[in-house]
Write a structure and sequence with these properties.
Number of domains: 2
Number of strands: 8
Order of helices and strands: EHEHEHEHHEHEHEHHEH
Strand content: 5-15%
CATH architecture of the largest domain: 3-Layer(aba) Sandwich
Distance between the termini: 59 Å
Helix content: 40-55%
Radius of gyration: 24 Å
CATH topology of the largest domain: Rossmann fold
Low-confidence stretches: none
CATH class of the largest domain: Alpha Beta
Number of helices: 10
Strand order of the largest sheet: 2-1-3-4
Shape: globular
C-alpha cells in the first residue's frame, strides 16, 4: 500500500466541519503521511461517482464525509463499500441519536449552520468591530468590547481576536509597551468589560520576534529581540496585570484555538460574576 494516504473530505456544505474533525484526527498520528482532497457542496450522486472514480485509483484512499441527506449519505457509503474504499460518516449517528433524545425529526438541510439568522449577523458585526479595534485602534470605544486583550508584542493578540470575532465576540486588542500605553478609560475602570492579559516565556518570545524580523528582512540586533530587554518587558506586563487584577493566560505553547478557548472560559466567569 502507498505510504501516503489520500484523504477525501466530502461535504454537502462548506466543509468546515470536516476540516476541523480531520485536524483533530491527524493530531493523534504524528507519523501520518497524507494528502487531502476536499470536495464541498457535494449534493448529487453524479458528483459522488466522479469523486469515487478518482479515489479508487489509489488503494490508500480514505473517505470522511459530512452529508445530512440520508439517501445521499447511504449512496456514498454503499458505493464506497462496493469499491472497497474505507468510508466514514461524521454526522449520521450523531444526528440520529439527537433526534431520538429530542424526540424531534432532523431537518436534514445542508448548510443549516450557515443560515442568515441573528447569530450570523452578530458574528459579522463582531468581525467588523474587531478589525476596526485591532492593535490599539479606536481605544475611545473599548467600552463597547465584549473582550479586551492586552499583551506585549507577538503574544497572538490579533489572531486570537479574529478567532474570537468569528465566534461572535467583539474583541479589542491593545499592545502593552508599558503602563502608559493603557487607555485612560481602562485605568479608571479596569473592569469596564472582560479584560485579559496575554503573556509568554521570554525565551519563546525571542524566537518568535526573530522570525518576524527575518520575514521582514530586518537583521539588526535591536532591543525588540534582546532577551534581557524582553524579560524586563514581560515582567513589567505581569506586574501591570496584577496591579489591575486582570486574569492572564500564558500563550507560550498554546495554539490560537486553545488560547481563545481559555479566553471564552474567563469571559463566561466574568459574565456570571457581573
Amino acid at each position: 500500500m502507498n505510504s501516503t494516504y489520500q484523504i477525501y473530505l466530502i461535504s454537502d456544505s462548506t466543509g468546515e466541519t470536516l476540516d476541523r474533525i480531520f485536524l483533530a484526527i491527524k493530531a493523534q498520528f504524528k507519523n501520518m503521511d497524507y494528502k487531502v482532497h476536499t470536495y464541498s457542496f457535494t449534493r448529487t450522486e453524479n458528483q459522488i461517482l466522479k469523486i469515487l472514480s478518482e479515489a479508487e485509483k489509489d488503494s490508500s484512499s480514505i473517505i470522511l464525509y459530512s452529508i445530512v441527506d440520508n439517501g445521499l449519505a447511504k449512496y456514498l457509503a454503499n458505493t464506497s463499500d462496493d469499491k472497497k474504499i474505507p468510508c466514514f460518516g461524521v454526522l449520521g449517528d450523531l444526528i440520529l441519536n439527537f433526534s431520538k433524545l429530542l424526540n424531534q425529526k432532523a431537518s436534514h438541510e445542508p448548510s443549516g449552520q450557515h443560515a442568515l439568522n441573528d447569530e450570523y449577523y452578530k458574528r459579522i458585526a463582531a468581525i467588523q468591530f474587531t478589525m476596526n479595534h485591532d492593535d490599539g485602534n479606536l481605544v475611545k470605544e473599548i467600552g463597547k468590547s465584549d473582550i479586551i486583550l492586552l499583551g506585549v508584542s507577538r503574544t497572538s493578540k490579533t489572531p486570537t481576536s479574529i478567532y474570537l470575532a468569528n465566534k461572535g465576540f467583539k474583541t479589542s486588542n491593545i499592545p502593552l509597551v508599558n503602563e502608559n500605553s493603557i487607555p485612560q478609560a481602562l485605568k479608571e475602570n479596569p473592569k469596564i468589560t472582560c479584560v485579559i492579559g496575554l503573556n509568554t516565556e521570554p525565551e519563546r518570545l525571542v524566537d518568535i520576534r526573530n522570525n518576524r524580523m527575518n520575514s521582514l528582512k530586518e537583521n539588526e540586533n535591536t532591543s525588540y529581540t534582546n532577551l534581557d530587554k524582553i524579560r524586563k518587558e514581560v515582567d513589567e506586563a505581569k506586574k501591570t496585570f496584577r496591579k489591575y487584577q486582570w486574569p492572564t493566560i500564558d500563550v507560550t505553547r498554546k495554539s490560537v484555538e486553545e488560547t481563545a478557548a481559555s479566553v471564552i472560559k474567563i469571559y463566561e466567569i466574568y459574565k456570571q460574576n457581573g
